[in-house]
Amino acid sequence: GESVGLHLPTLSVQEGDNSIINCAYSNSASDYFIWYKQESGKGPQFIIDIRSNMDKRQGQRVTVLLNKTVKHLSLQIAATQPGDSAVYFCATLDGEYGNKLVFGAGTILRVKS
Amino acid sequence: DTEVTQTPKHLVMGMTNKKSLKCEQHMGHRAMYWYKQKAKKPPELMFVYSYEKLSINESVPSRFSPECPNSSLLNLHLHALQPEDSALYLCASSQGPGLYGYTFGSGTRLTVV
Predict the structure, then answer these.
(1) From CA B23, how far away is CA B71, in angstroms rounded?
(2) Do A43 and B105 count as a contact with CB atoms less than 8 A apart?
(3) Distance (Å, whole) CA B24 – CA B15
C-alpha cells in the first residue's frame, strides 16, 4: 500500500514569511495528491491538489510542487497569516481502484505574530 | 449545499451502551467514507460505501457497524466499545469512488468511559 509521510512534525514561522511543508511518498504509481488543512475541532479542508502529469500548481497564496523523481511534494504558503495555523496533511489515492484516500503523518504549522 | 453534516458533535458513552453516529450530504455524491482520527494522528480509513454498498472494510472490529440507508445518509452504529475507541470520527463523501473532490464533515468527538 501507499505510504505518505512528512519530514517535519512542527513548523513555526513569523507572520508574513513564506512557509514550506514537505511530504514524501513511496508508491511511484501514485498519480493524484492533495493537501488538506485541519484546524482544531474541524475536519480536513481541501487546499489544493495536483496530478502526476504536472510538477507545479498554484492557488491563492498556495503552491504545490511535485518531484516525481524523488517522490516528494511540497506545499508553499506565501505571506503566512495567523489564520494559517493548523495541521497540514498530504494525501493520495491508494488501493486497487484508487478509492482509498490515505493521509500522511501531518505537520503542525504555528504562525507567530 | 456543499457540506457534509455530522451529528452529534460530541458523544460520551459507556462501554455497554449502543449509540449511532450520523452523516448526511446533499451534493449528489455516490461514495461515502468513515475515518477515525486519534489525537495528533492522521485520519485512518475505516469504511467505504460506493453507490450505497459497502466496498471496503479496513478490518474494523465488529463493534463498529456501518449502514448506508440511502445515497445521502451514512450511519455508524456503535456497540460495546472500548476506551481506546475514543477518537474523532470523520465522515467524508466524494462524487464517486476514486474520484476527486473529497469533502469532510467536522466529525463527532467520541469518548468511551
Answers:
(1) 11
(2) yes
(3) 26
- Once rounded to an integer, what is the mean pLDDT over residues B42-60? 95
What integer pLDDT is reported at residue A94 of this predicted model?
A: 83
Peptide bond into B83 cis (omega under 30): no
Which residues of chain A, if any, have pLDDT below 70?
1-8
- The one-letter code for the residue type at B36 is K
pLDDT of B63 strictly over 60: yes
> Which residues from A are below 8 Å from B92, CB to CB?
43, 101
One DSSP character per residue, A24-91 reads EE--TT--EEEEEEE-TTS--EEEEEEETT-SEEE-SSEEEEEETTTTEEEEEESS--GGG-EEEEEE
pLDDT of residue A9: 84
Grade residue B97 by pLDDT with cuts at 50, 70 and 90.
confident
Instruction: Provide the shortest C-alpha distance from residue B41 to chain A (in Å).
Output: 6
- Closest alpha carbon to A89 in A6, A11, A32: A6
From the list A105, A35, A112, the residue with the least C-alpha distance to A73 is A35
User: How large is the C-alpha radius of gyration of chain A?
Assistant: 14
In the chain, the amino acid numbered A106 is G
Residue with cell 514550506: A20
